[in-house]
Amino acid sequence: MKLYDSHRAPNPRRVRWVMAEKGIEDVEIVPIDIMSGEHKTPEYRARVGVPHVPALELDDGTTISESVAIGRYLEALYPEPNLFGVDAREQAVVEMWTRRCEFYLANPIMLNVRLTHPALAALESSQQPQVADYNRVAAERFMRTLDRHLADHPFIALDRFTIADIVGVVGLDFARIVKYRPPEELTNLARWLEDCRARPAAKVGV
Ligand SMILES: N[C@@H](CCC(=O)N[C@@H](CS)C(=O)NCC(=O)O)C(=O)O
């Protein structure tokens, strides 16, 4: 298998984190330079179907993009440690929180960063500060929801670390490149972030 990866980009980091938690080492890493547009070449588009990283190419030529779908595939091949839930209830709860973290936290943060960081202007047709701010406010609304939830839950979805935590932490960490920090009063969020960042797998490829 080959992972089309971009070292500094957040979505590929989700997959590298899943791989590190599971000790997966038999995936060839193929670096893609998104700043120079390597993901927009006809060859890359033909292989992956969309101009995005990450993408996982299987030995039979199937290519899977979408970081969470790649994670789910790797979970089927390497079930331990479990990151996506072991039964119907857990799987649904993990998916619910993963989607919430993508839609209401990681995506608005990603938009805020892309619409404000000067180096990322190349990826946008125009950078709009008002839209960036709207997205920061939206992300902070969900951070407050998470903070309340994390007051009596060790991790986001289950009593153990899951893909939902990876999506949440990677989203928040991406905001560090614009020197953003979550509001200080969100102490449960801060505790959870610290716990997740302390995991050895959190450091892989950052
Ligand atoms: N939902 C997708 C998002 C993929 C995505 O947007 N990746 C970014 C890097 S983090 C990308 O390829 N950006 C290239 C561009 O915007 O031109 C996933 O989870 O994999």
UniProtKB/TrEMBL annotation:
This is Glutathione S-transferase family protein. InterPro entries: Glutathione-S-Trfase_C-like (IPR010987), Glutathione-S-Trfase_C_sf (IPR036282), Glutathione_S-Trfase (IPR040079), Glutathione_S-Trfase_N (IPR004045), GST_C (IPR004046), Gtt2-like_N (IPR034345), Thioredoxin-like_sf (IPR036249). It comes from the Bacteria. Residues 87-206 form the GST C-terminal domain. It comes from Brevundimonas staleyi. Residues 1-82 form the GST N-terminal domain.
